[in-house]
Amino acid sequence: MTDLAIYSSLFHNNHSIMLIIQPQTGKIIDANKQACLFYGYSLEEITRMTILDINTFDEQEVLAEMRRSRQQECNHFFFKHKLANGDIRDMEVYSGPITVGGKDVLYSIAYDITQRNKQEREQEELITKLEKALKEIKQLQGIIPICASCKQIRDDQGAWNQLEQYISMHSDAQFSHGICPACKAKLYPELGGKKNRNL
Has this prediction a pTM greater than 0.70? Predict the structure, then answer.
């Protein structure tokens, strides 16, 4: 098998998206089956197009990146490509110069990373939300200095605060006041065992 036949077999039967591009103009010289299926064009249609018909970036930017690839300054790119049905996909592209049939061309392998980018964005948004929630959550932890008699609590600045005030400042808890039976008997002995709806 000749080198050209090996190239043809590896190119056309590969499961990755592959394009052969004319480096000066961006004309698509060849595309493998996977590229035709992905972009939604027949081989005849796609080889009448240029990469500028697919790449949504500015023409000068695309040509500049192709020049960098041709000069081997960079071989890894991120683009947005437009499919035949109008969908825009995030693409990771590896491109470099090769010689085929005595001609210098750009050989590009592309991967659809739209779903990966979406998942990364969702993960970043989730992390941001969690970090925000953690900042908003106030927790009581460590040793809390409390007066053995009046039950006031000393804060980090040395000031003494009522128990309710301290807990409210350091958590989302809120207080509803009432009187327990023991305190009721102590503070209001005259009431005895009588029920009082106001207490």
Answer: no
CB 95 within 8 A of CB 77: yes
Q: Select, from the ranges 6-20, 27-41, 179-193, the one with the highest average predicted confidence (pLDDT).
A: 27-41
The size of the chain, in residues, is 199
Domain that holds residue 141: 137-199
Task: Return the biggest CA–CA distance within the chain.
Answer: 112
- Cα 89 to Cα 196: distance, rounded to the nearest angstrom: 72
**Contact between 30 and 11 (Cβ < 8 Å):** yes
Output the domain CATH number for residue 16. Answer: 3.30.450.20
User: Has residue 196 been placed in a domain?
Assistant: yes
Rounded to 5°, the CA angle 5-9-10 comes to: 115
Q: Is 126 helix (H, G, I), strand (E, B) or coil?
A: helix
Q: Do 104 and 162 fall into the same domain?
A: no
